Amino acid sequence: MSSSTTRRRSSRLAELAVQATANTSASSDTVDDQPKRKRARISLDYDSEDEDEDEEKVPKLRGNRGKLEKLTEIPLDILFEIFGYLTPYDVLRLARTTKGLRTLLMSKSSSSVWQAARSNVPALPSPLAGMSEPEYANLTFDARCHSCNSLRCENIIWRFSTRLCNRCLPLLFTPTENLTAPDFMPMLWQYKKMHGYLLLDCVPHISITPGKEPFRTASKNLSLERAYLQPLVDRLLNEYRNTKDDSSALAAWIKLKDTKAYEQWHSARLANRSEELEKTRVRRREAWVSYNLDFSLPHSPSSSYSILQRLSKQGWEKEVKFVKEHRSWDFNKHALVYQTKDLTDRIWKNIEEPMTQFMEQIRIIRIRKECRPRYTILRKVYPEYVDLQPPDLLVPIIGDVLPLNLVKEIAEQPCSEEDPLDEDIFQPLLDLLPEISRAWASEVEEELVKIAKATKPDFQPSSLKLATTVFQCNSLYCKERMSYDMILKHSCATSARFTAQGERRPEQFSGQIEDADFFGAMPWNEGGDRVNFDLVGSAKAKVIVEKLGLDPAITTGENLDRGDYAFECTRCKRKRDGRECRYLMRWQKALNHSCKTQFLVKNPREGPEHEAFLRAETEAVFDGDRRHSWGWGARPVQKALACKHEGCSQRFSYDGFKQHLFDVHQKRKVESSDWTWSACATFSEVYKDLWVPVRKTA
Predict the structure, then answer these.
(1) Whole domain around residue 356: which residue ranges?
(2) Contacts of 639 by beta carbon, 8 Å cutoff, 6+ apart
(3) FRET label pair with 439: which of 32, 99, 489, 513, CA 20 to 30 Å apart?
(4) Quick one: 407 and 313 in the same domain?
(5) Do 283 and 306 sit in the same domain of this protein?
(6) Cβ atoms within 10 A of the Cβ of 41, count?
(7) How far apart are CA 172 and CA 165, in angstroms?
C-alpha cells in the first residue's frame, strides 16, 4: 500500500515539475524585451558599509557557564602561582564552583596554595591543631552559622571550632546553673580543684552575660558566668573518671587549649571592618570629615559629593547648618544615610525624594525653635481658648492647629528675645476656632470613612455615627475599641511616642519627638496607621445593641450614651468591705471587656439598680484618687465637664464644677442629674469600671 502511494505521489510531482517548466518557458517568451528583475542579496558581512544603519543587529550574549572549565587545563605551576594572590576565602569559594576545581584544591598536593593565600591575610594565626586548611578557612571567613546556616554570624567559638548565631547559642549551650553531672561526681563538683584548676576550667566553655541576649533567661547571680555543651561535659567527665587516679595523666588531661591568639585576631578583624564601614558612612554623608564644608568650590556631577553638599546645593543651607548644630544624631542615623555604600549619582537619584521630605521636617523644627518665644505663648493660651468654647464643640488638639497658615503667620514673625510679647497675639485664632474646629472634624471624619472602606469596601459615610461602627487603636500597648467620636480624642492617635510593633516608627526621629513633647501632641493619626476599622468590635457592638432591644441599623453611639444604658458582667464578681459587688459598665467599656458577650446582661434603666449605677459612676468621676489611676493612654483634658442646669453653657474642671454647683445652684452634693461630659472628654474619662454592691433583698 505504501509503495503504490509513493509511486502515485512521485508521478504527480513529476507532472507538476514538467508543467512548471512549460509555464516558465512560455512566460520567458513574453518578457524577453524586459530586463530581468534582480534578486535582493543579503550580505553576511556585518562590518559592511552598505548595511542599513537603521536595522540594529542584536548580538548573541554568551553566558558565563563553563568559563572556569578551562582553568583546569592551565599548567599547575602557573595556576598555583595565580591562586597564591588570593585570600583563603577566595580559594574556598573557588573550590565550590566546579567539581574539577574542588578536586584540585581539596587535595593534599594543593596545601601550598592555601598556605600562600593565608599569608596574604595579615597576622592570621596558623590553623588549629587537627584542622585542615580548608576547614580553617571555612571557620575563619565564611560567616554562616554552623547550626542553622544563617548569614552574618560573627560568633566564632574557637574552643569548639564552630560558628553559632545568637539564636542557636542558647539552644546548644547550657549555663553553669543548669549543668548536670554523672552520679559518680561529688556534690559541688563545679568548684572542685585539681592542680590549681577548677574542674570546670578544664572543660571548654564560653563566657556569657546572664540576663542579656542571647542568655537573657540565665540567672544574674551566677558565680561562674559561663555556658557549656552538656554532651561534651558528660564525655570529658567520664574521661576524668578514668584518669583522676593517675596524676601524670590527669595533668595532661587538664591542659587547656590556648585560643587567645585566634580570639584576638578575630576581634581585631571585626574592629578593622567596623572602622572601614564607619569611614564609608562618613564619606556618604560628608565629603570631608570637617563640618566646615566649603560650598564655594566648583560643583560637578561626581560621586565624591556627599548628601549634605547635594542638599545644600538644592537650597537647604539653613537646614544643613541646623542639622550639624542640633540634629546631627537624627541625620547620621537616618536609614538612608547610615549605610555602608559610597554615594553615587544613581543612589542619590533614588534617595533624593525621601531626603527632601526629611529636610522639610527639619525646616519645621528649625523654624519652631527659632520662633520658640511665640510658640511658647501659643502652648500656654491654646488650652484656655479650648475651655472657652461651647461644651458640645469638638476642638482639635494643638498638634492639628500648628500647620495652619493663620498660626504660622502669627508665630513665625521675626522677633527679638529682648522685646516683650503680648499674650493676645493669637486672638485671631480664638475668633476663628469654632470654624476651624468644624472644618477639622469634617476632614477627620472623611479620613475615618476611608479607613473603614479599606477594611470594608461597602462602608457608607452615613454609617459612621452608628454604634456598630467601631474603630481600634493600633498602639502596641493599647488596642482599645471605641466609637468614631472617641477615636478622634484618643491620646495614642496624637502621641509622639506611638508604636505599633514594639519599635519607634521609622518616620519619627528624636527631633520630631522633642518638638511634639514641647507642644504635647502631634497631628491626629500622624502616619496614617494609628487607627483601623475593627470588624470584630463592630460585630460585638451589634450583639450589644441587640441585647438592649434596639435596632443596630439606626442606633447611634450618642443614643446609647444619652440613654444611660449599662451592662453587668455576670461572670465577674468581687468583694469590697465584706460585701459582694456587681461589675457594671457602659456600652463602650463592654466592647473592651475580656469576657464573652454571653455573660453581659442589661442593667435595668429604672429602679434602685439603675440609681445605684448612676450614683457609683458619679462617685468614680469626682473621686480625685481614681482620676489619677486611669489606664494606658489616659490624658484628661483640663475642663471635661458641663452643667446640665438651664442657662449654663461653659466647661468645667472637676473641682471647678463642684464650686459652680455650690455658688450658682446652692448644692453641695453632686448628682447624676447635675453634670454631663463636654465634647473633649476622652475615652479613659468617660468609661470606667464600676463595682456596685449587691442590694440586699428582704
Answers:
(1) 274-370
(2) 386, 387, 651, 652, 653, 656, 678, 680
(3) 513
(4) no
(5) yes
(6) 7
(7) 11
DSSP state of 389: S
Q: Any idea of the CA torsion for 481, 484, 485, 487, to the nearest 10 degrees?
A: 50
Q: How far is residue 500's CA from residue 476's CA, in Å, rounded to a whole number?
A: 5
Contact 464, 449 (CB under 8 A): yes
Contacts 24+ apart (CB under 8 A), 650-656: 650/388, 650/391, 651/387, 651/389, 651/391, 651/678, 651/680, 654/621, 654/622, 654/624, 654/627
The CA-atom distances, in angstroms, between 572 and each of 584, 626, 686, 690, 691 are: 9, 20, 21, 11, 10
Q: What is the pLDDT of residue 590?
A: 92
What the block records as the C-alpha cell of 513 is 519627638
- On whether both 357 and 427 belong to a single domain, the answer is no
State the Cα–Cα distance between residues 395 and 398, nearest whole angstrom.
9
Per-residue model confidence (pLDDT) at position 655 = 87
Q: In what order do the strands lie in the sheet with 675-677?
A: 651-652, 641-643, 675-677
**342 falls within a domain:** yes
- Whether the Cβ atoms of residue 153 and residue 164 lie closer than 8 Å to each other: yes
Nearest Cα neighbor of 381 from 419, 437, 428, 440 is 428
Taking only the tens place, the pLDDT of each residue in 153-204 is: 888 888 778 888 888 888 888 877 777 766 556 555 655 665 555 666 667 7
pLDDT-flagged residues of the chain (< 50):
1-6, 9-10, 13-14, 16-18, 20-34, 42-55, 256, 287-304, 506-507, 628-636, 698
77 belongs to a structural domain: yes
582 part of a folded domain? no
How far apart, in whole angstroms, are the C-alpha atoms of residue 81 and residue 382? Answer: 79
Whether residues 336 and 421 share a domain: the answer is no
> What is the rounded distance in angstroms from the CA atom of residue 118 to the CA atom of residue 140?
11
User: What length does the chain have?
Assistant: 698
What pLDDT is recorded for position 299?
39
Same domain for 295 and 429?
no
